[in-house]
Amino acid sequence: MLKHEAEAADRVFHALADANRRAVIERLTRGPATVSELAALLGVTVAGTVQHLRVLQDSELVRSEKVGRVRTCRIDTAGLRSAEAWLRRRRTEWEHRLDRLGAVLDDQTKEPGS
Amino acid sequence: MLKHEAEAADRVFHALADANRRAVIERLTRGPATVSELAALLGVTVAGTVQHLRVLQDSELVRSEKVGRVRTCRIDTAGLRSAEAWLRRRRTEWEHRLDRLGAVLDDQTKEPGS
DNA sequence: TCGACACTTAAGTCGTCGCTTGACTTTTGA
DNA sequence: TCAAAAGTCAAGCGACGACTTAAGTGTCGA
Question: What range(s) does the HTH arsR-type domain occupy (chains A, B) (predicted)?
């Protein structure tokens, strides 16, 4: 795996490891929200929420734009996609390995002698 | 979401947040390995490796069995599947929301008056 | 039988993380 | 014009996490 891919995985999975950050993602899948709204949802300070948002943006799980004095946040599927891709690669690689192993075993039972 | 699902997500994403634990997973997708082999791969103590393995097993990302004095570890796809499912749910929910929003906007442009 | 091997467990260290408070900037509306 | 609203930044605190070392436990082979 390339180094920048590994770093991306690091950022994304670290971001997803926190329940409050996942709650932000779940909320944003149902539509945009402001920083204050997210803070109220989580039950933490606005300052704390901003820190979570920085992590989420660095991992491309959330985008946001500020108009006037209010910042509106929305989902960025890039992070979700890259995490999903990482997991799918591991899982399918494993399953294909099992298939190949199964094929080898089948051959062995059909042709016991070499 | 059910509570035990949330706890499972917590465990799995926390497990995946560590680069060494992901390295273990990547290694095990290519076949089983012993604790010592994984320790050598990571470049950390066997004791430290055991701690990682506990986390990975609690999140159903790895299974292991001990025969004699050697413990053999292999992938458990249950954890991978549940993490993948969580991400896919968020992403598709968001994409469907965008579709519905697009449909509404199309209707509005077709029928400007109400 | 006994020493080396493979792992396990406990305890301790050090850094990072999540959160708060408090001071600040910018924008808004009356 | 000015106070309240919305967010930003920095410092600090307590808890947790990833290591280590050190002292076990059980297993294998000679």
Answer: 1-95
Quick check: A9 and B22 in contact, CB under 8 A?
yes
| Cross-chain Cβ contact B9/A30 below 8 Å | no
C-alpha of B69 from chain center: 29
Domains of chain A: 2-110 (1.10.10.10)
**Rounded to whole angstroms, how far apart are CA atoms B3 and A60?**
27
Rounded to whole angstroms, the distance from the CA of residue B29 to the C1' of nucleotide D24 is 33
Any atom of strand C under 7 A from CB of A65? Answer: no
pLDDT of B97-107, one tens digit each? 887 776 665 55
Give the N- to C-terminal CA distance of chain B in Å, as an integer: 37
> Which one is predicted more confidently, A66 or A2?
A66
